[in-house]
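Form 7-S
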Amino acid sequence: MSDENDSDSPMTEDHWEIYVTYVDDHPAVILVDLGIADFVPLPNKPALVWLWVHIQSPDEEGFPPEEEDMILNDIEDAVTEAMEATAARYVGRITTNGRREFYFYTDDHEAFRAAGETAMSSAPGYEFEIDDAEDPDWEHYSNVLYPSAEDFQQIHNQHVISRLYDAGDTLVEPRPVDHFANFKSAEDRAAFIVAAKAIGYEVASQPERDNETEFPFSVGLIRVDSVDAETIDRITFELFELAQEHDGEYEGWGSKVVKPS
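Output:
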């Protein structure tokens, strides 16, 4: 939602991303607005406020079935629309443990509560909770909603997969997949290459970048794999951790489009 009612807030464009993680040991799907990230904390919105909606028919992992998910999306629209008249800034939601949790920051607890109760009156069959806490440093946004480095890798994976799918790729057909990583020293890169070869990768290139970068020693790897979400997440997380073990950074992956024959 926009923040046009609050002239003291930065005019940012929404940039929403979604990823799967764990919150308090429970599987969770987090939707977060990254568009505000460079501006937090906003000093004129020191309070975290939230509205939790209890899912009526959660599955064994605590997520709603598809039909109820659509109802919860309608509830979200009603909640965010109701908040447009208040000073609340919508920053993210978490679906986990039988709840869909909507999080905002504001300086007016009571206006948020009143707007939330009004919005939920359109969904009388749903139990909900509204509460608030002082959070002037926006720790909930930074420590819970904001993606970790691994979460950003998952987000990147989804972007690449979406581009391949939109181009007609089936995603499941095995094909050569390129991976890239960067290291602080040639020795770190060499040790990483040994470990990568042990799990089936071949070295495609070993360029050296500008020495002014922190990780000037690069390597390109290649291995035949499928690129469906489950497979590519497993592969990239493994390389991500392997690069970190050798003081490096995993940069990403790519694939040519493979269409059904």
